[in-house]
Design goal:
With 132 residues, the protein is mainly beta. The chain has 1 helix and 11 strands; from the N terminus they run E-E-E-E-E-E-E-E-E-H-E-E.
Length: 132
């Protein structure tokens, strides 16, 4: 099967941390740029963080998460991660992992103009809740 699967969501208090993980299966993982997105029901998709394909470790972050979130990947394990620190209530929502072999640069993968772009792989989502 070809897919990506997220894990690591949960409920935390404001100021807390979570680490999301995304595993890719059935495709040559390192050839794909990886990204994390948030899309609440009835709202537009929002790019949170992206990282380039292969050995391109350039990253892109939404302004709202810069300095708090860190995206990384381990091609040897077919894994991508999103470390989220100092979480705030507005960070809550369903987080989705995506992979794409065409938009291989982080800035392209997360470009807001690609809001309706159909990424090659899109996960089922993991819920993040931040409340006191």
């Amino acid at each position: 099967q070809l897919h990506v699967v997220e894990s690591g969501g949960g409920s935390v208090q404001p100021g807390g941390s979570l680490r999301l993980s995304c595993v890719g299966s059935g495709f040559t993982f390192r050839r794909y740029a990886m990204g994390w997105f948030r899309q609440a029901p009835g709202k537009e998709r929002e790019a949170i963080a992206c990282i380039g394909s292969g050995d391109d470790d350039r990253t892109y972050y939404a302004d709202s998460v810069k300095g708090r979130f860190t995206i990384s990947r381990d091609n040897s394990k077919n894994m991508a991660y999103l470390q989220m620190n100092n979480l705030q209530p507005e960070d809550g929502g369903p987080y989705y992992c995506a992979a794409d072999a065409t938009l291989t640069f982080a800035q392209a993968m997360c470009n807001p103009s690609n809001i309706y772009y159909a990424y090659d792989f899109w996960g089922q989502g993991t819920q993040v809740t931040v409340s006191s």
